[in-house]
Amino acid sequence: MLNFSVKEADILFEVLKARRDVRGNRFLSKPISEEHLDKIFQAALHAPSVGFSQPWKFVSITEEAQKQKIFNIFIEENEKASELFKDTIYSDLKLEGIKEAPVNIAVYYSQKEKAILGQTSMDQVGEYSVVCAIQNMWLMARALNIGMGWVSILDSEKVNAVLKAPKDHKLIGYFCLGHVSEFLDSPELESLKWEKRKNKEEIIFKETF
Ligand SMILES: Cc1cc2nc3c(=O)[nH]c(=O)nc-3n(C[C@H](O)[C@H](O)[C@H](O)COP(=O)(O)O)c2cc1C
After folding, report:
1. What pTM value is reported for the model?
2. How far is the CA of 56 from the centre of ligand 1 (A)?
3. In this predicted model, what pLDDT tens digit does every residue of 114-145 receive, in sequence order?
């Protein structure tokens, strides 16, 4: 049985705290090595999943033409979003790195064909499992000093069409990955005063809310 030291736990916490959402203005064109990409996928494969169903699928995208198609979908969706945030700094924010990042990865939930142990009352737990895999990738990427950013301002139907996703597959997240010029010390949305980090008292309750 592996027993970790407090020092090792501290290192894990350092990685957790240092993980950032990385956007286009910080990606470098330097390619990600196959070895590093493999480690990131291995991290995903070791995530927990309901009934050990491992309901995840990954599409890696490196061709400029494919990235451009996804970028066009982002532009269209972001224009709609800008309307909701008029009179804010929204339109000045860089919210993706689709073209700048050498690798994009679309992560899918592949719907169950049979009953899954544990997925009998809350159907969404299959999708939650995919999110666990995503977080593993994000942390492993950071431990390898590779930046990763989530792009959710996308029309999933249009992304599915570009990636020729099978009908029973659901897009969970679209990610940009690459080496970076820097990792910010704190979330950009915090330093721009868009949101503040919540403190424990606001979110942790005892016995009941
Ligand atoms: C589900 C999810 C969707 C997100 N979508 C976007 C996005 O579309 N564009 C973006 O710039 N950041 C996106 N983010 C990143 C968040 O803005 C970021 O995680 C948050 O501001 C905290 O910053 P940090 O990840 O650097 O700690 C997303 C994060 C999550 C978890």
Report:
1. 0.98
2. 20
3. 999 999 999 999 999 999 999 999 999 999 99
